[in-house]
Amino acid sequence: MYFETSFPVRYYETDQMGVVHHSNYIRYFEVARNAMIAEAGYPIERCEKDGVVIPVIGVECRFRLSARMGDVLTVSAAIDSVPLAKLVIRQVVKNQRGEVCAEGSVTLGFLDSSTYRPVRCPAPLVEIIEKNT
Description:
24% of the residues lie in helices and 34% in strands. With 133 residues, the chain is α+β, with helices and mostly antiparallel strands. It has one domain: Hotdog Thioesterase (Thiol Ester Dehydrase, Chain A, Roll).
C-alpha cells in the first residue's frame, strides 16, 4: 500500500536560517500516514469509534538533506505487509527536486480503547491493506 501527499514548507516550521526544524519531519510523517488511511476508507476517527486506539510505539528518522523555506515537500507512506499487533509504515520526505530530505519508519500499536490492552489490527484496516499490498 502506497500513498503520497505534497505541501509547501510553512514559515513557522523553520528556524532563523530558513531550515525546517528536525521535529517537523515526524509531523510530516503523521500527515501522510493519516491521509493514507483516511483515503483508503478507514480514518483514525472510525477506528476509534470502533473501540481501537492507535498509539505510536516507535519512530525512526534519518535526516539526509535540510528542507528549506520555499520548498514543496512530498511525503510518502508505505505499508509492505499485513499487520497483526503492530503496523510498520515506511516514510520518505522529498523536496521538489526529488531529493530525499528524511526517511524512516513509524510503528503503530493497537489498543482496546476501554482497557488500553493490546489487540490485533482492526479487521477493516487489515482488509484494506490486503487489497492494496
